């Protein structure tokens, strides 16, 4: 398991802004309401500092309170919406992902790399997966997903090395590959073949195939995938039947990247 390595701080970075964002990220589906002491513990900051952050966020309309508990307000959605709107995600979803989902009868998604995780920035689905249901904004460990491995294969050698130095590799199922040597080989195979496929590694029953999406300079900036349930289709059949289809949709998305500058800037290199 890789150890977390602290990233060097920029001289002009705003510590207060970073702390405020850390407080927002402390809230999750399982931690929708938090006390001051809980937030201080999760963010690893003094209670007085956490309190100032919460009061500021409350004044700005991002946080509210109920008794001793703090909760996020809907205004937080504006932060993510600005990113999605700058990328014209609706255009990509309606013209490409929905068609791919209809043609396969399953889910299709577009993901980008954010640190050691992949983030869903667009998704269309015909069929609901019982074991795992993703949505725009969902985040998963890159090493255990087809989209993540495609994105890691697009990194420079230095960026990939930083990934392995900072990522925490843990088994999510008994089929999850966590050995760094094996993962590097899988990523190299993905770079060579142009695709990645996983089955039962992120969650039991989930099988997925992903291909890279490129910008005009040939840089991998996103990953396109088609996912299903392993009871419905095997990994080998998924590759055989959908690889060419995914490649075609990837070319179509790559062709419109000139009008979606935010996506190109999302590359992890």
What value does the average pLDDT take? 84
N-to-C span: 23 Å
Number of helices: 10
Strand order of the largest sheet: 6-5-4-9-8-7
Largest sheet: 6 strands, antiparallel
How much of the polypeptide forms β-strand, as a percent range? Answer: 15-25%
How many strand segments?
A: 9
Element-level helix/strand string = HEHHEEHHEEEHHHEEEHH
Structural class by secondary-structure content: alpha+beta
* Low-confidence segments: 1-7
What would the principal axes of the Cα set say about the shape? globular
Alpha carbon gyration radius: 20 Å
User: Percent helix among the residues?
Assistant: 40-55%
Structure, explained:
43% of the residues lie in helices and 20% in strands. The chain is an alpha+beta fold. A hairpin with a 2-residue loop joins strand 4 (107-114) and strand 5. Helix 5 packs antiparallel against helix 9 (235-255). It starts with 14 loop residues before the first helix and ends in a 5-residue tail after the last helix. A 6-stranded antiparallel β-sheet has the order 6-5-4-9-8-7, with helices on both faces. Strands 1-3-2 form a 3-stranded antiparallel β-sheet. Mean pLDDT is 84; it is low at 1-7.
List the helices and strands and how they pair.
Layout (H helix, E strand, L loop, with lengths): L14 H11 L7 E3 H8 L3 H14 L2 E4 L2 E4 L4 H10 L2 H16 L2 E8 L2 E9 L13 E3 L4 H8 L3 H10 L13 H14 L2 E4 L6 E9 L5 E10 L5 H21 L5 H4 L5
Antiparallel strand pairs: 1-3, 2-3, 4-5, 4-9, 5-6, 7-8, 8-9
Helix pairs in contact: 1-3, 2-3, 5-9, 6-8
